[in-house]
Amino acid sequence: MRSPLPPAVTRAVRSLLTRAKRVPTSELIAWARSRPIQSRTVLYESFAGNGALCNPEAIFRALLADPEFADLTHIWAIGDADAAAALRAEFDGDRRVVIVRRGSGAYWRAVSTAGYLINNATFPPAFSKRVGQVYLNTWHGTPLKLMGFDMPGGARESANTLRNLLNADYLLAANPFMAETMYEDAYQLRNVYRGAIIEEGYPRIDRQRMSDVDRRQRIADLGAALGVDLTGKRIVLFAPTWRGSSFQAPDADLAHLADQAAGLQRALGDDSIVLLKTHQVVHRAASGIPALRRLLVPNTTPTNVLLGLADALVTDYSSIFFDFLATDRPIGFLVPDGDAYGAERGTYMPLDQLPGPVHTAAEALGRELAPLMATGADAHPRYAEWARRFVPYEDGSATFRVVDIVFRGRTADRRVRPVRRDERPRLLFYLGGMRLNGITTAAVNLLNSLDPERYDVTALMAFPRGATTKHNQSRLDPGIRQVFRLGGMNGSKARQIMRRVADVSTDPLRAHRRLGHRTLWRDEWTRIFGSAKFDWVADFSGYSPFWAHLMLHSPRAVRAIWLHNEMAADRDRTVNGKQPFRRSLGRVFAMYRAYDQLVSVSPALTDLNRAELAEYAPSDRFVTLRNLPDLVSTPALDERDEEGEEPEEDAALGETLDAALAVPGIRRFITVGRLSTEKNHARLIRAFAMLSATDPDTQLLIVGGGPLRTELEQQVRDAGLTGRVILTGPLRDPASVMRRCDCFVLSSDYEGQPMVLIEAAQLGLPIVSTAFGSARGALPGDDMHIVDRDDSALAAGMADFLAGRVAPASLDVGTYTSEVLAQFDTLVPRAPASHGSAARSSGTP
């Protein structure tokens, strides 16, 4: 039987296949983005193409009916076949109205060339607004349930939404609460978003207003569509939020809706009729359930038209009830899972403060709702207050005002404003791959330590997909704005290949100017950040040519890049006979001249990098910022190898470690670090072999993963040290093992400021280290026993510990942290970059 492919090969093959499938669409998008902007074309999209719905539909109908805009072409992006057919039938013969299938070639051409873009949700990740386009995002309702970064796991869940909002020129808010609580706070647009918020009410709510004649006709049409006589009946619209676990198997949940609707009907009596409006995504499944068929309103009927027909509304957590407040008709809330929903998702207002009766049982709600529907009945006590707060501008003219602003450019006497801003510098950090390594730990520690009253902080990352990267991303303070790069750079494959070849074969900064690659980079920045502006941007990783280049295409700002190691030595590092970083780090070095600050993580390392990299940047740009500690109670992070080796979790390893650590009378040395050449674990094993020959009651634990693991395991066996030297592989919580050891030892040839040294000092472990270039000064007070970089010296240093000649290290975390943060303050401009030390023009894209 053939052995399976190695995991790394399997992942690479899958990645190639996925990319191959995307090539035709990528080429089509690249071609479409090269076409001229059609200034008199409007593209509309609602709910990812579910139909001509919501605010975009209201704006569409207003523009279509206005003679002033008779020259506009209106394109609807629709993925639902029934919705497309209904719209096509309604506007058959009107050449101004065009329908394209969402995701098709025609769709991407329209998205890429339409002068106006109107969406109530999000365009796909490949979308990036072009110069000359006007993007209005209307969103789809005032939120009751938590949104954006307020949601559990909200940073990841909101990734494409935040990207769309940052790309928009206008964001539509139905009320001040939506503008402030959702846009500015939940999606953290304050300070960085440079478009405008329109607070003029919701165009879709205008559709709730209709004459008595029109209302009677629409009710008759709805009854005919359902096969139900609605004459003389009070219509109660039941519109719950969909919260099922699977859209593919919703029958049981939808059957429960049928039971709830029946309970409401029994309590309300024969003079009322309950109609059901489901979430659009599950309408097709709901229509297949016999108990729902005669009360399920058509998916093509606009929701706000239904609200205009309804005499009362029953919902749960849906934002639909905010719109219904404009009718002055009663609302009931059916929340059988209120406590669980509040705990899992959360709401902005307590359920017991809603503007209508709240119940967990349908019949009980129906009995309390019925009197509120009686002619002349008083409104619910909280109703008027909620209406004033959430529908203050709904006078039937919201559509006119929005069109006035977006299409006529008239803002005088209109509620249009920028987002709230303050005087805090806006900082952007690219954090690297968020793997289990020292860079990730240093990044998380620094960002979590920055004072949110002093700095507005944004973290940029690739979208985390594995458990490890998700774990590390979740360690960031929730107040830190998190932006993820979804999808890839736009542009034809030919241009991308030319860009890569030029970046490798020539100076990357000159190549992008001479060959026209600047547009690719600027488009990619816009695709991720829209019009967002930062005062100080930093590539905290410092190892990737792509990210180093991308950060140089931010709008004008002070730019910093981190040097976590003796970078020249890292460039020349040899692994398995190859130098994997020589070319990539060479390209990063070539971009140093465009950065204002080259940040090393210790004073000694700054001196080394300044001397060894002098050809790449002036000496005054090399500065120092030490790494910050984390609380040792938080699991420390070991490293993850380039092939994706994950931390060990199996029970057998835990038992082996526990057994080894439980043996009494043993003095234990431990090291934590990547199993690669610069760490020189081979030297450590040889030194330990020399030590153990005279001190047999000793043990060495090597924690880490990496490309040399197999080779080092063989060295241990050859030296007869099995059971005395234990290679644990990477661990999620190496600090818990460090606590049970007696001395930390480091055998590296070169380093930056290793995070493990800070963690060892926090634990009060004695530390023996080789004299790598930046060893002296790696800890405050030089609290380490430093020896020469050879086997005998390292063995002697370990013997010094056994003889009691190596004192425990220590770290005053509070004092050290204050000193580092004071250093950080000197790096950041105290005023916007345009008024301070802006990026130098020499070499800057």
Describe this structure in words.
By secondary structure, this protein is an alpha/beta fold. 40% of the residues lie in helices and 14% in strands. The strands form four sheets. The protein has an eight-stranded mixed β-sheet, sandwiched between helices. A seven-stranded parallel β-sheet has the order 16-15-14-17-18-19-20. A six-stranded parallel β-sheet has the order 23-22-21-24-25-26, sandwiched between helices. Helix 2 crosses helix 18 and helix 21 packs across helix 22. The longest helix has 26 residues. The C terminus is likely disordered.
Number of helices: 34
Cα radius of gyration in angstroms: 32 Å
Please give the largest β-sheet: 8 strands, mixed
- How many β-strand runs? 26
End-to-end Cα distance, whole Å, is 55 Å
Note the overall shape.
elongated
Low-confidence spans: 244-250, 632-646, 831-844
In what order do the strands lie side by side in the largest sheet?
3-2-1-4-5-6-7-13
Overall pLDDT metric:
89
Helix-strand category: alpha/beta
Helix amount, in percent? Answer: 25-40%
Beta-strand proportion: 5-15%
Which key features would you list for this structure?
single chain, 845 residues, alpha/beta, 8-stranded mixed beta sheet, 7-stranded parallel beta sheet, 34 helices, 26 strands, elongated, disordered C terminus
